[in-house]
Structures are given as C-alpha cells and as structure tokens.
C-alpha cells in the first residue's frame, strides 16, 4: 500500500498537493435574488466542485488502490460533507457569511430566499464559527477532509451492494482492512500535525478529540442538506446537473 | 453512476 511507505510528513504533503483549486461560479447571480436563481447557482457550483472532488479523491494516497466499488461507495456517501467542510474552510474568516466560491458569497438574509435553507445556513455558520474558535490549521483541515472520505461508509451494511451472498467474502474483508489501514495512516498524520504545535500532551489529545467531534456535526448538517436538496428536486426547483443528480440519487438510494 | 465511474476510471493528467 502506498500509504504504508509514507511518513506522516510525506502523507500530509501529498494530501496538501491533492487540494482542488478555487472553483468559480463564473457568471453573475441574478439580482434581486430569487429561490430558483440561488438554487441554480448553488447546484451549478456544486456540480463543478464534484468533478474536482473526484480528482482530489484519486490523489489521496491509497485511494485508487481500493476496489472501484469501494471508491464509488465512499464518494457517494461523503460528497456533501466534503463540499460542506470546504465551504466552512473558505468561510472561516467571514463571520456570518458563507463563501460558496470566490465570486459567490451569501449572507443569511440572502440565503433565506430559499425555502428551508436558513436552518441549514445557520448550522453551517455555527460549525464554521467552531472551526474559527479552534483556529483550525490548513494541515488539520486537509486531514479531516480525507478522514470524512475514508470513514464515510464505515457503518454502512455491505448488503447495500445488492449482493448479499457476497458479504463477508475474502475480497470484501481485504478491502475493509485496506480502508482501515488508510484511515489509520491519515490519523497518524493528523496526530503528527497536532504534535508540532507545541501543545502539552493533554492539550494535544483534547485538540484531536475536538477536531474529530466536528465531523459528527458535519455529518448532521450534510444529512439535513441532502434532505433539503432532495425536496428541491421533488419541487422541480432546481436544474440538477448530471453528476450532482447521480450523486444525490445514489445517496437517496443508500439511505432508503 | 455512469459519470462518477467515468471520472474515476479516466487517467488524470
């Protein structure tokens, strides 16, 4: 396994290099803002970001060594969480606002023109405030994002493949152990990053706990966001682009 | 998952 031969420092370097570029909406959002206009911009942006997310995942050391089915499942499970932690990271220095892209920044009031969105907006802003409070470092952020990807279907029943007879098979056990090994490597990298900060041992492990506890909030907001997007789709409120639609449908299918 | 598979299996630059 690639990740097994990398030191934590080398792994961090590789994960930092995998970071996607800034994605621009390109083309101004129509003002005054309307529900359809905002949803159109947000979904267009999300679709663009998803394409870059696939390239990002492939650059996480060890990811492409997983089976193609595992790669698909992981991305289908985590995509909105990954979009959301990226949004929080971009917004960390802008209290009360969400920086969806360098050319699309929304205030709470602007977000409120989309029905049901303001609750999610507030949860995103609150989670972003927590990142600010923790003074999250970029190296920690990239590790957390990789952990979201690798941990995303840890508790998903394998019968979701629709191949119940195969569950617990040799290939599947190997796949799971590879995945756990990869996740451990990223954990080692995060622990290493925290250890460089000059904190006492106690402060180091409480920081690790605080960072990991962020992930449960991100999962929660993502689930809320997924339901919201699904409702918007049902109301024909958004033109869902091909990759976004595919990822949303897969998520709805897994969770039902 | 046609598009996702396509993106996962194409060689990156």
Protein model, in words:
The complex is a heterodimer of chains A (256) and B (13). Chain A contains 9 helices and 2 strands, in the order αααββαααααα. With 256 residues, chain A is mostly helical. A two-stranded antiparallel sheet of chain A has the order 1-2. Chain A is globular and about 55 Å long. The model of chain A is unreliable at 159-166 (pLDDT under 50). With 13 residues, chain B is mainly alpha-helical. The chains are: A mainly alpha (256), B mainly alpha (13). Chains A and B meet through helix 2, helix 3 and helix 9 of A and helix 1 of B.
**Largest beta-sheet details of chain B:** none
- How is the biggest beta sheet of chain A arranged? 2 strands, antiparallel
* Head-to-tail CA distance between termini of chain A: 34 Å
* Poorly predicted sequence stretches spanning 5 or more consecutive residues of chain A: 159-166
Helix content of chain A: 55-70%
Tally of helical runs of chain B: 1
Entry summary:
The complex is a heterodimer of chains A (256) and B (13). Chain A is mainly alpha-helical and 256 residues long.
What's the arrangement of secondary structure elements?
The complex is a heterodimer of chains A (256) and B (13).
Chain A: H1 8-17, H2 35-59, H3 68-91, E1 97-101, E2 104-107, H4 108-111, H5 117-133, H6 138-151, H7 170-195, H8 201-234, H9 242-255
Antiparallel strand pairs in A: 1-2
Chain B: H1 2-9
């Amino acid at each position: 396994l690639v990740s097994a031969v990398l030191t934590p420092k080398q792994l961090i370097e590789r994960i930092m290099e995998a970071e996607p570029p800034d994605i621009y909406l390109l083309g101004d959002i129509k003002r005054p803002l309307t529900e359809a206009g905002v949803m159109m911009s947000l979904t267009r942006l999300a679709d663009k970001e998803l394409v870059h997310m696939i390239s990002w995942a492939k650059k996480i050391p060890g990811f492409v060594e997983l089976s193609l089915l595992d790669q698909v499942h992981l991305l289908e499970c985590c995509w909105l969480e990954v979009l959301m932690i990226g949004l929080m990271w971009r917004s960390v220095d802008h209290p009360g606002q969400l920086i969806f892209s360098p050319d699309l920044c929304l205030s709470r009031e602007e977000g409120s023109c989309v029905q049901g969105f303001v609750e999610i907006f507030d949860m995103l802003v609150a989670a972003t405030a927590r990142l600010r409070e923790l003074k999250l470092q970029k190296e920690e952020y990239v590790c957390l994002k990789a952990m979201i990807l690798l941990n995303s279907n840890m508790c998903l029943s394998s019968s979701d493949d629709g191949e119940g007879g195969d569950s617990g098979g040799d290939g599947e056990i190997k796949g799971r152990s590879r995945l756990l090994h990869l996740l451990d490597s990223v954990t080692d990298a995060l622990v290493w990053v925290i250890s460089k900060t000059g904190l006492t041992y106690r402060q180091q492990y409480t920081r690790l706990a605080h960072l990991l506890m962020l992930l449960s909030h991100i999962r929660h907001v993502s689930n809320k966001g997924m339901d919201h997007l699904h409702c918007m789709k049902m109301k024909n409120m958004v033109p869902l682009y091909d990759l976004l639609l595919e990822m949303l449908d897969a998520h709805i299918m897994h969770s039902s | 998952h046609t598009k996702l598979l396509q993106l996962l299996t194409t060689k990156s630059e």
